[in-house]
Write a structure and sequence with these properties.
Blueprint (H helix, E strand, L loop, with lengths): L1 E4 L4 H9 L3 E4 L5 H11 L2 E4 L2 H5 L6 E3 L5 H12 L20 E3 L10 H6 L3 E3 L6 E2 L3 H10 L6
Parallel strand pairs: 1-2, 1-3, 3-4
Antiparallel strand pairs: 5-6, 6-7
Helix pairs in contact: 1-4
Amino acid sequence: MKFICDDNLGKLAKYLRVLGYDTLFKSEIEDGELLRIALSEERIILTRDSKLKALRSAERVILIRFYDPAEQLQQVFRELELKPQKNNTFTRCLDCNTELVEIPKEKCTQRIPSYVFKTQERFLHCESCDKIFWAGTHVERLSEKLRSFIPD
């Protein structure tokens, strides 16, 4: 399942990426471009714009009714009957949406803080934007926020 979020849903896009869903987001995107991408890539449009929901050419559009990103996420899961899987979390780049690949610790030496190198064993790499990710305290905080969405 693939999504595209309109420019009002940046946090929702990030949460969906954290949960492993292929989710496009651009901070500035015209309705026509959003619709073109959604149709050509078979993406579900997530929007707060009721005009976009009304377009006849849009096949699958969810009009997001909430302002709070957690409630937005709940709405998407309810309407699509989604059940996120724990093993899919933190598998996509939060910035560019690319799937992350594991990278040997030795290849990270010059690119991460020395404390991180000493305390972490697993690293993920985004081949698109060239960022390195690891399970720091930000992962714990985000996981705690999203825990209610992920079955044990």
